[in-house]
Amino acid sequence: MNYRALGNTGLQVSELSFGCAPLGNEYGELEEAEAVRSVWAALDGGVTCFDTSPYYGRTLSETRLGAALEGKRDQVVLATKGGRFDYALGNGFDFSRAGVKRMCEESLRRLRTDYLDIYQLHDIEFGDRRVVMEEGLEALRDLKQAGKVRCIGVTGYPPGLLREAAEACELDLVLSYCHYNLLNQRMQEMLVPLVSERGMGLMNGSVLHMGILSEGGPQAWHPAPARVKAAGRRAAQWCRERGACISDLAMQFAVANPAVSTTLMGARNAPEVRRTLEVACGEWDPELLAGVEEILAPVRDVEWESGRPEYFHPEAEPPDPAAEAGARLE
């Protein structure tokens, strides 16, 4: 395992982090014991950064992670989020100053710790702009000043909104998802210059495009347009016919980005953790990559609508009609 600086925060993080959505059964049922084993497998493999949220499994992920890290808290960089706790746009989010601070206290209890290394507002495109930019960001500053958290940031789908938040507040890091991988690389232009200039950390999530770049394909709730999912299936088949795995290639491609502090992996169990750690830092086959890029070129950087209408990218497409209403996000 290699380690990288998390911007100018003073923290060093493993270049692969454990994305804890699977601990909340977001990608299929996971037994309690297997959840603990997956965390321990990551620790054994040199992973030091664990990223969760009360939204994953509606507190289940945080509860399981807190139990798995009992006695190991000082070995990890612990990250969670506030502001999002359910699906519904009308009542599944609370970015108010009081709400964010209350959610942080609840997360501390579930994670069995008295401080967080990283605390971020979760999926800010679902919040009222004024509330997010004024109350939510102010709550982060309050928590940092009080010593409850060491580093503060924001997460979300539209990279332009993440950039706006970073410009409005002295954030330590941002977490972008689905915007630097084989299907979408807009993070490079929208976020990398700013975070580099300001010495911020950059976390990259959903490098498998929430399952599209995997053998099993995406869950039914995935909001991507159908043509993006179809291209993903063709790319996976291309790799399979050559004795390769699309998810291995996707992880290797993402981890190689030197602008990223840490790349999140969403392994569902201990064997997947070990396999991901084994292949992620390897070198890809240039011919395999070229073939996949050609297949994906017609849908490169295609986005979907997410959050409140005012945050949509002009070229964003409506979610796939087959996707579940209020689709789950990273």
How would you briefly describe this protein structure?
By secondary structure, the chain is an alpha/beta fold.
What do these coordinates show?
This protein has helices spanning 32-44, 60-68, 97-110, 129-145, 159-168, 187-190, 192-198, 226-241, 246-255, 270-279, 286-296, and strands at residues 3-5, 12-14, 16-19, 49-51, 77-82, 116-121, 149-156, 173-177, 201-205, 262-265. It is α/β, with parallel strands linked by helices and 330 residues long. The strands form 2 sheets. It has an 8-stranded parallel barrel, surrounded by 6 helices. It has a two-stranded antiparallel sheet with strand order 1-2. Helix 1 packs across helix 2 (60-68), helix 1 (32-44) runs parallel beside helix 10 and helix 3 crosses helix 4 (129-145). Residues 324-329 have low confidence and may be disordered.
Secondary-structure element string: EEEHEHEHEHEHEHHEHHEHH
| Uncertain ranges | 324-329
Give the tally of β-strands.
Answer: 10
Largest sheet: 8 strands, parallel, barrel
Helix/strand-derived category reads alpha/beta
* Alpha carbon gyration radius: 18 Å
Proportion of beta-strand residues: 5-15%
Q: Percent of residues in helical segments?
A: 25-40%
Number of helices: 11
The coarse overall form would be: globular
What is the end-to-end distance?
A: 24 Å
Overall mean pLDDT stands at 94
Major sheet: arrangement of strands:
3-4-5-6-7-8-9-10
